[in-house]
Amino acid sequence: MNKITALNVFRRVVEMGTFKAAADDLHLSQAAVSKNINELEAFLGIALINRTTRRLSVTESGMDYYGQICGVLDSLDAADQSIMAATFTPRGRLRVGVPMSYGLIRLNPLICEFQRRYPAISIEVNLSDTYMDLVDQGLDVVIRGAAALDDSTLRAKPLCEVRRVLCAAPDYLKEAGRPARPEDLKSHNCLLYSLSSSPRKWFFTREAESVAVELKPASFCANNGIALKQAAVQGLGVILVPKEFVSNELADGTLIKLLPDWQPDPHALFAVYPFHKEQSPKVRLFIEFIVKAFQLR
C-alpha cells in the first residue's frame, strides 16, 4: 500500500460522497479506489467507511481520522508547493464555467488576459446561464452568484456586487406610462429572467423601506439577460438586468432608467472552486488574478 495515495483516496471519498465521484476526480478506477480503502482499513484495523449496495457512510472513527489527515496532507502539499514555487511555471488545462451574458461582457476578456499572461495554462471556458456543477462537469472554477454555499466541499471568493437596473424603451413608456412606485409594476409587462429563483417577484429598497412586488405572468421571458435587453429595446416591456448589460443603451437613451430612488436587491458574484483544489497552482493563480482584477475596477 502506498500510504499517501491511500490517504488521498480516503479523503476524496469522504469529500465527494461516493467511490465513483472520488474515482473520477482522482482519475482512478472504482476498483483502485476500493482497493486503497480496503488496504487502509486493514492497516489500521478499523472500519473507516460503511458501504452497502445503495450508499456509503463514514464511521465515527473515519470522521476523526479524516479530520486529522487533512491537515497532514495539506501540509505536505504546501511544502511541495513552497519548494517548487521558485522554478515551477503553472501549466496544464484550466476549465472555467461562467454565466453567458456576464461572461461575454465582463469575464471572458479577463480570462483572455489571464491566458495571455500565463501561456503555459490552456483554458477551456464553459459559457452557460444554467447552474454548473463543478464535480459532475469536471470544472476547476465557476463564476456565479451565490448568497451562501450549502456544500462544504466548495470554497468561494467574493468578486463584486452586481448592481441591477430597472429600465424600458421610450416607446413602451409612452404607451404604458412610467411607474412611480415599485407596486406600479404589477400592471406593467415585465420581461422575466426564467432562471431566477423567483422570476415573478422583484425586490426593491429605499432607505429603510423594502417592497416585494409580485408580477403578473410575462408575455416574454428568457434564460439570458442579453435576450431580455433586446426585447426591451423593441418596446416589449420592463426589464431588471445588471447595469453593465444596458450601459450603452442607457447612455444613448435607447432605454430609460425607472424608479431611480429605489434600489433593486443587489446580487453578488463569487469565484467558486472545490475545496481540494485550493493548493492547485493554476487554480490558485487564476483566483488571485480574477479577484485582483475586480478590486481594480
Tags for this entry?
297 residues; alpha+beta; elongated; 3-stranded antiparallel beta sheet; 5-stranded mixed beta sheet
Characterization of the model:
By secondary structure, the protein is α+β, with helices and mostly antiparallel strands. The chain is built from 9 helices and 15 strands. The chain has helices spanning 3-16, 19-26, 30-44, 60-84, 100-117, 170-176, 225-233, 243-252, 281-295, and strands spanning 49-51, 56-58, 92-98, 121-127, 141-145, 154-162, 164-168, 192-193, 201-206, 209-214, 221-222, 239-242, 256-257, 263-264, 267-274. Strands 4-3-5-15-6 form a 5-stranded mixed beta sheet, with helices on one face. Strands 12-7-13 form a 3-stranded antiparallel beta sheet. A 3-stranded antiparallel beta sheet has the order 10-9-14, with no helix packed on it. Helix 5 links the parallel strand 3 and strand 4. It is elongated and about 80 Å long.
Strand order of the largest sheet: 4-3-5-15-6
Give the count of helical stretches.
Answer: 9
> How much strand?
15-25%
Head-to-tail CA distance between termini: 51 Å
Oligomer: single chain
- Principal-axes geometry comes out as elongated
Residues in helix, %: 40-55%
Largest sheet: 5 strands, mixed
Radius of gyration: 24 Å
Protein name: LysR family transcriptional regulator
Domain HTH lysR-type: 1-59
Family: Belongs to the LysR transcriptional regulatory family.
GO molecular function: DNA-binding transcription factor activity; sequence-specific DNA binding
